[in-house]
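Subject line: Sequence and fold of a protein, written as structure tokens
Area: Proteins and the way their chains fold up in space.
Start of record: The labelled sequence and token lines come straight after this line.
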Amino acid sequence: MRPKVESFLIVVTLSTFLAAILRSPFLGAVAGVLAVIYVYKKLGKDGIRRVFRQILGERNSAGLNVSDDGFIVFSNRYAKALVVDDVPFDYRDHDDSELRSLIVNYNRILDSIKDVNVVLVRQSLDKRDFLSKAYVKLQNLRVQVENDPTNERAKAEIRLLEKIIKKIEEGESPFKYKIYFIVPGATKEEVAGKLELLKSGLASIGIRARGADINELSEALFFRTSAVKVALPSNLPLVSPFVLTRYPRVELVSDGVLLGFELLINRAVMWNVRKSLNPHLLVLGPTGSGKTEFLIALSARLTSHYDVPVVLVDTKGDITARLTKYNVPFKRLNPLVVSPGLLDLEEETPELKAFAVEGVISSTFELGEEASSVLFYVLLETFRNGWRTWNSVFRTLDELDYDDSVKARIRKALVVVRELESGKALDVGKIESEPQLFIIDVSNLSVEEAKRYVILAMLTRLYTHFRRSVDRGLRLVIVLDEAWTVVSRQQMARGVLGDIIKRGRGHGIAVFLATQNVSDFQGLEDLVLENVSNLVILSNGDMKFWEDVGQRFVFLSKEEIRNKLMYLKRGEALVRLSNDPRPLLVRLDTFVS
């Protein structure tokens, strides 16, 4: 390699000489490019980085440098830094004794390490720059609405931007804190050991920290114009991360769909569904608290903001009526016109298809083990023969030799199913390609088994279609408001709904569940709570309800429950996003409000 590099140097020198003699800007530019390439080949990426770090060290502090392995080197001593990514709770989440215990343990951990330096960096956004960009975006949105008055997404963004701009002009300024722990030592080995001890100690009291990278080290060590740095000795007893007010991660609440506004400071609360660890949502609240209104507004914003179809199940007709009242466009899937098309399932083998269809029918009509087994073999024989009509299923049932009483129970169920499947089959592919609201309206069906069949069959069609691909982001939202009135525990545990809740997010499916209390899940609370991490809990005057919620979902003290949660009004809620134990009190933004 050396002869090639040296030859390259000759070419660089010759180009530079000719550029100077001929006074040619072109040859000068060529020489410059060749010189950069030569330096890169000569030193390599690591070499250039070392030169940069040496320059940075000389410029900022005499004798101070950063080594390749992330150590801060000054004179004959070393140091390394941890940065706190997240503190999962703050002083409001504990009573006095718990908080004292945390702070004491925090300072014991620092004392055991010795000579730990704590650096707090407070960062603010530039108001003028933010407002300038906001005004440009606002103007563009207004132009969009002028050209297309039906653009609900642009209208919603305009309303939100206007509110945010107003709050900033009134004096609000967003900021955040970063906390660094800098550990010094005589050798690299000593520093590494102390750093690991500090990291595990902080983790034991719930503080997640990691090694700081080169950019974060420069932020912690050297002043920047965009940050105000405060360095604190580690032996101050009351200084700890727990005294900083906790707020959900910025990327989750600064972009996405609008949920509402914080009660105390009127700050907009957004939900970035795509960046959320879990897209499922559970809405809890008694009758009249505003669950349905919230789900309608959220669904309309989701389909416009993320360009995804949203399918709502309407068991009472109130969702359809309210969307019509608010002039929100939607497509109604009336089971008397559009049938589920359960025999059109996109399963690869007759066995899988027979299993899925039998599961829907058996759980809907509660056929029992023997009748379910017979129905499976009837469907399997039908599909193996290549038949795809319900009349073919009846014919197969008549031809097979089974107990007449069992066949009679199956026939009774199939008569109802055939009637519900008499319309045009649901086009699932069309739903995927049309980002709008779809309403499965079963309110006009008087028989509960008929409602259950339509809901479970259509959900099965949707899930079977969408689960054929994985990891493609959010692709479908399913909204179930009070669906437990028609879906039993057995159907949820065995059927498609349980599968969607457990595995749907891997296929881009989000499920929004609304009910009055967790106990409505009839013993399947763990199935829901282990797979749903976003919560909206509306006003409820029951102290026991809030204490159960506070112990199971979030960090809430009894004082907070008595002073705040017991007096929430209609449309006000406690919101927790994506496993973040610091909840927010939010005035939900709906079409009514």
Remarks:
- Residues 351 and 460 are 16 Å apart (CA to CA).
- The chain has a mean pLDDT of 78.
- The first helix runs from residue 2 to 22.
